[in-house]
Write the structure tokens for this entry.
Amino acid sequence: MESDTGTMQPAQAAQAARTQVRIRQLLDAAARLMTTSGSQSVSMQAVADEANVSVGLIYRYFSSKQQLVNAVIVGVLDDMAVHVPAATAQVDDPIRRLASALEAFIRVVDDQRAAVLLTYRESHTLDAEGLQAIKDAEIRTAQPLVTALREANEQGMIRPMNVSVFGYDLLMMAHTWALKHWYFKNRTTLDDYIADQIAIALSAALRPEHRQNYTDLLSDLT
């Protein structure tokens, strides 16, 4: 029951928080196992064992393994939809907002590397409706990048370009931290990867007359 102010009672809030922790625990366990073995080879009991919970608890939240796979994929997109706007909300300059958005994307990917890999590995197993929903959600998550690029373009700060395509290129740059982590982990740190990719992206996009305003973001290339 909600209080008169429309907020949760303390006991309800605590229960909701515990539920979210359990669900995240299950999703992380499923992502780890399914990334290694594929969803078809992983049983709900195996996920329960990995998460150190009862299999009955899994079925309290997910009626099938397919629903569990969907939830892992959607969870990544939900995190992006929360953390990227939060990282850019107070940034007025479109170039710095673009850099903040790209950093936030990469950090979400790092936090959920197994789930990102599972997205690529298992998306073909979704039904048509589920796959379309994931595609639509992914396109929406790229909007902070596209919006920042569009504003920068309108202000004459970047070279002429298809901002939708370049925005999606940047989203893929974030995904690459998970997709090729086996390569990058021995050659760079997360922070250096972020700085390098921001510098590379801005070096390609910025008009020469605006570069001096962002030397701190371009420092890895100067």
Q: What stands out?
A: Residues 64-221 form a domain with the Tetracycline Repressor; domain 2 fold (CATH 1.10.357.10). The mean pLDDT is 87. The chain has two domains: 1-63, 64-221. Residues 23 and 107 are 21 Å apart (CA to CA).
